[in-house]
Amino acid sequence: MTAMTSSARPADPAGSAARPPLNRRLAEFGTTIFAEMSALALRTGSINLGQGFPDTDGPEEIREAAVRALRDGRGNQYPPGPGVPELRAAVTAHQLRRYGLTFDPDTEVLVTAGATEAIAAALLGLLEPGDEVVALEPYYDSYAACIAMAGGRRVPVTLRPHEGRFRLDLDELRAAVTDRTRLLLINTPHNPTGTVLTRAELTAIAELAVERDLLVVTDEVYEHLVFDDAEHLPLATFPGMRDRTVTIGSAGKTFSFTGWKVGWVTGAPDLVTAVRSAKQYLTYVASGPFQYAVAEALRLPDSYFEEFRADMLTKRDLLAGGLERAGFTVFRPAGTYFITTDIRPLGESDGFAFCRSLPERCGVVAIPNAVFYDHREQGAPFVRFAFCKRTGVLEEAASRLKTLAP
Q1: DSSP state of 342
Q2: Can the peptide bond before residue 138 be classed as cis, meaning omega within 30 degrees of 0?
Q3: Long-range CB contacts (< 8 A, 24+ apart) of 120-123?
């Protein structure tokens, strides 16, 4: 065969030379703030309280369960597309024991490569181009990208600080729903604000979804991290919601094995089928041996979950106290392992500039909340710190931050 000469090459389509490589739906999304701030932490030798991952591993017996699965050849080849039966059964047992929710492990559970893939697959599987998605702002950063990839249009409803917590304006939520709204994207316990939606708020959300015949995707990965008098209430338990809700869970946050990337969705068969239709063309399957280990983790006694929550509560209060002494206004979270702060008492108002200068000023890295907002001005003065770290690390961070005090 004769090689094609340059003169014989087909002409480029009109305008292709000027078209950028990146899909226009993703043009607004650059390198994540987590990558930027983690690189800054490494470069400056700072304490990284930005990205939300623990600096210690979870239970030894669960790690050993993964080792056993590897040695026994369980999951070393492709696991079943919906997830290994042991994990699907464990998920259904967990939902029944904790919340009284009954699911069929064969048709109403799907294992995913972490909650991030579950979110992506749910939105890709349930949305058509042009569908509107109402999401609570600030939101986990992958929400916006996944809505964009699905061709949807995000409609943010802003949580605003009031009396020490970030609150949902139910009238604003109702006003955001239009004839083009397909889906509500709910996150409780809420990252980054730490708000846990109340029974009254969830009741209103459920009533709105039923009235307007909306689907709901609810991200509940921090379900076991609720503090003080807060209570996690799955939206699927509310009247009319069992068959219109896709619930997302994850092992990473609860068992401190974030690198295993094991998540799941539960819901009615038609919804789970829609999510699986997208998921099978993303990773197909993942995390085979770890699925067996997570199945054992979900069956740990209640004492594990109670001790885990108590440990995180102690760490929350340790870091919150240090931030208050440093001069921040602190919103003590009712859930998650993040603390949102207001930097204005420090004479600052630009969270991006503050976070980029913080490593040089005192050797600590945080995340500017504005990256989680469409309305950047709403999040400008807020900064998020993670407290899922060893006690000694938090104590040192608190000591360094104290130098900021006015």
Answers
A1: E
A2: yes
A3: 120/146, 120/149, 120/278, 120/282, 121/265, 121/275, 121/276, 121/278, 121/279, 121/282, 122/217, 122/246, 122/248, 122/265, 122/275, 122/278, 123/147, 123/149, 123/150, 123/152, 123/183, 123/185, 123/217
DSSP per position, 285-310: S--HHHHHHHHHHTTS-HHHHHHHHH
- pLDDT tens digits in sequence order for the chain, 406 residues long: 444 444 444 545 555 568 889 998 988 887 788 888 889 998 999 999 998 889 999 999 999 999 999 999 999 999 999 999 999 999 999 999 999 999 999 999 999 999 999 999 999 999 999 999 999 999 998 999 999 999 999 999 999 999 999 999 999 999 999 999 999 999 999 999 999 999 999 999 999 999 999 999 999 999 999 999 999 999 999 999 999 999 999 999 999 999 999 999 999 999 999 999 999 999 999 999 999 999 999 999 999 999 999 999 999 999 999 999 999 999 999 999 999 999 999 999 999 999 999 999 999 999 999 999 999 999 999 999 999 999 999 999 999 999 999 8
Residue whose C-alpha is closest to residue 116's, from 90, 145, 153, 75: 145
Report which of 400, 396, 399, 401 is spatially closest to residue 383, judged by C-alpha positions.
401
Residues 6+ apart with CB under 8 A from 91: 103, 105, 109, 111, 249, 264, 266, 298
Model-level pTM? 0.93
Cβ atoms of 158 and 298 within 8 Å: the answer is: no
